[in-house]
Amino acid sequence: MSRMSEKDLNTMRRRMASVANHLLPAFSSSSSSAQHVVSSIGCSSSINDTYHRVHGEVPTHAPHWRLIPCDENGKDFTDIIYEKAVAEPIAKITINRPDRRNALRPNTIKELIRAFNDARDDGSVGVIILTGKGTKAFSSGGDQAVRSKHGYADFESFGRLNVLDLQVQIRRLPKPVIAMVAGYAVGGGHILHMVCDLTIAADNAIFGHSGPKVGSFDAGYGSSIMSRLVGPKKAREMWFLTRFYTASEAEKMGLVNTVVPLDKLETETIKWCREILRNSPTAIRVLKSALNAVDDGHAGLQGLGGDATLLFYGTEEGSEGKNAYNERRRPDFSKFPRLP
Ligand SMILES: CC(C)(COP(=O)(O)OP(=O)(O)OC[C@H]1O[C@@H](n2cnc3c(N)ncnc32)[C@H](O)[C@@H]1OP(=O)(O)O)[C@@H](O)C(=O)NCCC(=O)NCCSC(=O)c1cc(O)c2ccccc2c1O
């Protein structure tokens, strides 16, 4: 038999490793993601397939955060802290009213909307983290101290429900938004984390609705998205009984993606950001629209349709139409395929 080359040997090793992997015990569906399997067995090299060899683990170091002190008009942020990671496409928006359990007043929402707008427009941002200052609360929802006859009113003479605008903004923002939840996420705080694309919860997190106890309710996303997430029966239970649920109960209900020890919350969230950021931004963008499209009706279709147009503009076929118009000639689309 002729001597094996180094390349043949490597191929053989790879195939043997692959066969050995298939002999590993199967994992339950609750830990179905490959990365989750990797972390649950604590050793990425245990799965020695091409996928894991090529993609490997993401770095675990903490980002260096740069403070964005004010909005685009130079107005200082007071109710939020807005930061961007240096040399990494991650933005972090922190609700900063810890002595009120990060309750939301109209000004808090206005600042959140401005920060989210900035993160959307900034091409160097690919993922946005939404969180609350401190470990006691993500947010306790609408600030009951400033609730008036027509909504919430802080520095104005009229009330607003501008949290609804924020919910729509997060839902339509073409970048993933991750809720990083420690402590209470109740009332409007619970709804905000549900509207985010993913939720990473600390083991001290508590979720629930208090609306009907304080004479309020969110009959918009706060009802429809919750029913989608936990199912219609559980959604009714949560709204009708206004009980609070632990992080692990929330995970079982499908309300959160994962639960981690409080001191690992940011590290784990950053890990999820980095894993997302290694993937195609356009794929992620279109998937976010697609995952929302059916539920969001015309607005959902518009988002997904807008993505299609955006991609089409980058093609030669799309440019031919524009060029022909600008050159005052008929467009020639004859060379473009009519795919089956
Ligand atoms: C969140 C709590 C369960 C935490 O309890 P804990 O014992 O840890 O802390 P305290 O209760 O002592 O709170 C410390 C301090 O913060 C003040 N505070 C906390 N939450 C709020 C709040 N939401 N508004 C105003 N102030 C708040 C509290 O008074 C204390 O102040 P001191 O001066 O006494 O130190 C518990 O705090 C709690 O149950 N909070 C209230 C939760 C709540 O009912 N939230 C409002 C629900 S309604 C809502 O959020 C809402 C959401 C929407 O999306 C809507 C959409 C459309 C229409 C309406 C909407 C809407 O109303």
From TrEMBL:
Q: Which residue spans adopt a coiled-coil conformation according to this UniProt entry?
A: none
Per its UniProt entry, what is the enzyme's top EC class, as one word?
lyase
Recorded GO cellular component terms are:
cytosol
For the region Disordered, give the residue spans: 319-340
* Family designation: Belongs to the enoyl-CoA hydratase/isomerase family.
What the entry lists under NCBIfam families is as follows: menB, PRK07396.1
Name of this chain's protein: 1,4-dihydroxy-2-naphthoyl-CoA synthase
Organism, as annotated = Nicotiana attenuata (Coyote tobacco)
